[in-house]
Structures are given as C-alpha cells and as structure tokens.
C-alpha cells in the first residue's frame, strides 16, 4: 500500500502577496486587478475575501460589490512561479517522488521515506507543513490517503492550513458520505444528471449497476473506481522516464499556404495524437502548433488550457488560432506539427464543458477508438479531415 500526500497551497497567489507585503494581512485581499480594472477578473481572493462570497474567476466589478473594503492589487510578475519553485524544493527535501499538478499543488509519495519517521506519516506531514510556513511564510493543506484521488479529496476537507488523513485501506468507508461535488473532475452538468436519480453522496453511486448508467449514456468506470476507492496510486516523479510530451507532424509533398488544407491536416494530426493519449490513459494541458517554412525556419506557438483533456475537440479551436497567427504572412510552409505537453495520468474523470453532453461524446470517442484499434486509424474520418 502506498502512502500519498496531496498538498494544496492555501489561496496561493494571495498568500504570496501577503508574504512579501505583510501589511496586506488582516483584511480581505483580492489579486487580479485594482478597483479601476472594472473589466478584469479575480485571480485569487484570500480567505477573508472568500468569506464575503468572492470567488476565483469572478468579475472584479462583482467582487467590488461584495467586498468593497478589500485590498485590490494586480498580480506581481514572476512572484508565483518563484514561490512555486521554492515550495517544490521543500517537497524534494522529504521525498524524490513528487508529481506537480499545477503551480500550487502536487502529489507526494512518501511510502519509501517513512523509515526516517518510524512509519509516522502524520509527523512527516506536520514537519513538511511547518517547513513551508517557517521558510516561506505561507501555509499548505495536506490530504493523506492510499490513492491520489482520495488524498486530493482529503485535502479539501480542512482548509486553510489543514491536515486530513483518510484511514489507509479503508477509504471507501471514509468517503461514502462525501457529496459528489467533492469528486475531482465531476462538473456541475454531470452532478445535476446524477442528482436527478438521487445520487447525492459517493456511496449512492453503488446503488445502481453499470447497465443503469449506460442506459443514461454515463461513463461508469471512473465513478465505480471512486466509490470503491480504487483509483490510481502512481505518483509520476521527475526521475522516471515517463514521456513529457507527445508529438505528431506531417511534411508535405508540395509547399503550401492553403488554410483549408492546413486546418484539415492540423485536425488529423490532433486526432492521431489524442488517440495515442487515450490509449496510454494520459491527459494533456498544453498544445503547441509548429510550422516549418520553405527556408526550413521553424515557428511555433503554444496554448495552455485550465483543464486537462485528451479530446481533440477541446483543443482544435485554440490550435487553429495559433496556426492563423503564424500564417498571417501567408508564407508557404513545408511541415505542420502538434505537440501535447504537461501530461498526467488519467483517472477517466469527467471533464465538464458548458452546453455539451460530455458523456455521450466520451462514449462515442471510445467506440471510434475501439474501431481504429481493431481495424485501422483511417476506418473513421470526421468532416474536419476532408480536404476542401
């Protein structure tokens, strides 16, 4: 059995600002813009601002209505990445098995270092939290469990500056009364569909068999893994030879600047790359589009999503924008490529998108992947692949 920490920094951007300017403490703080930036959005409120109803991604104009007395500041360039690196350096003092998830959270596998603590993982967690606080003057919340997803849910229970330990090996009993809203990756659209049938708590998932969910068009594997606390315990760490990115590219027989053709080729490459990601049970967060001109000079641009995905539809519009930016000069090119990076293992979690039926699309994609695996990739083609 592995012992996994999920460490989530508390109101990270706001905490970093307070660390370098302690005068900001003791009062609601909203990072994202000053009061004149009416069209801006909230990047991070501290907990005093959250108590007033202010939330991340809320328009600043709304935040000002809810909390006019707060300090409003713009983000400090480079501060958060610097603190993120310093936090990560502290993690590595305790274990080499560190999997960063974002700038302010990470998974740590501490199983193989507990001999130094006589097996006391709570002592280790408290020491790590204190180290962050004493070194950087910011706080972290830690969730402890035998799987990554359970550790992540545990870290949400007591914030800020919390420590929650699920009973190792008995997480299923611990999580049964946790609301489905706490399951990472299950968004509001999916929550509404589940609640329609009385599935309000994690334990409620097991009231129905797979046939019931399939009749609703809901992908069940992830839900059953969550309800039985059988999700992944594998922490990907830097010393592993895990793939850091996945790329596909195509060199043309003839140089071209035909945008219809290039968009079609772009989608085809994305299909192949995402098919590979799904086969390897991997998600990505960043897409890079690359082109090579007739003089062999290379240009490339990247876009990073807020959510991980391995579905080409989630990336295509942004990929086209990147391509169009690079093709403004209408110079002919001889190669186009795509690269997916910031990879992480998938637990087959739902990825919520507005106004789309995620489950039906996921089921359709899985069936197409199955056909392609059995026969050939070209057995199914989408309209975007048709050369105009």
Question: In sequence order, what are the helices and strands, one letter per element?
Answer: EHEEHHEHEEHEHEHHHHEHEEHEEH
Individual helix count: 13
Mean pLDDT: 86
- Sheet with most strands: 5 strands, mixed
In CATH, the homologous superfamily of the largest domain goes by the name Reverse transcriptase/Diguanylate cyclase domain
Please indicate the percent range of residues in DSSP E strands (runs of 2 or more). Answer: 15-25%
Terminal CA distance: 55 Å
Top-tier CATH class of the largest domain = Alpha Beta
What is CATH's topology name of the largest domain?
Answer: Alpha-Beta Plaits
> Major sheet: order of its strands?
5-6-1-7-8
> What's the number of domains?
3
Low-confidence stretches: 350-359
Number of strands: 13
Principal-axis shape: globular
Secondary-structure class: alpha+beta
Percent of residues in helical segments? Answer: 25-40%
**CATH architecture annotation of the largest domain:** 2-Layer Sandwich
Radius of gyration: 23 Å
Can you walk me through this structure?
By secondary structure, the protein is of the alpha+beta class. The protein has 3 domains: 1-13 and 78-238, 2-Layer Sandwich (Alpha-Beta Plaits); 14-73, 3-Layer(aba) Sandwich (MutS, DNA mismatch repair protein, domain I), CATH 3.40.1170.60; 245-385, Dna Ligase, domain 1, CATH 3.30.1490. Helices cover 36% and strands 21% of the residues. It has helices at 12-20, 47-50, 60-66, 79-94, 121-136, 148-155, 171-175, 188-195, 210-215, 221-227, 259-279, 313-326, 358-374, and strands at 4-9, 29-31, 44-45, 71-73, 98-102, 105-109, 140-145, 163-165, 245-256, 282-293, 298-309, 333-341, 344-345. The protein has a 5-stranded mixed sheet. Helix 6 links the parallel strand 7 (140-145) and strand 8 (163-165). The longest helix is centred in the C-terminal third of the chain and has 21 residues, at 259-279.
